[in-house]
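Below sits my pick:
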Amino acid sequence: MLSVDRKKAVELFRNFNIQNNNDMCLEDKEKLRVSDNEAKECFKEAGIMDPKELRQLEKRKEMQ
């Protein structure tokens, strides 16, 4: 696929595979965690005083 010349194709394949890139596949991703108190403060700022109110909110629909 990289070249009809086998030697050249192998060389190009090796070079392609050692190139640095920003692909994120199996790498660990840092997860954001907040304490219960921080979450409560966020809810208060959003005007939600009782966590039960969250059940009343419409679920956000995401485009795929």
Remarks:
- The helical segments are 6-18, 36-45.
- The first helix runs from residue 6 to 18.
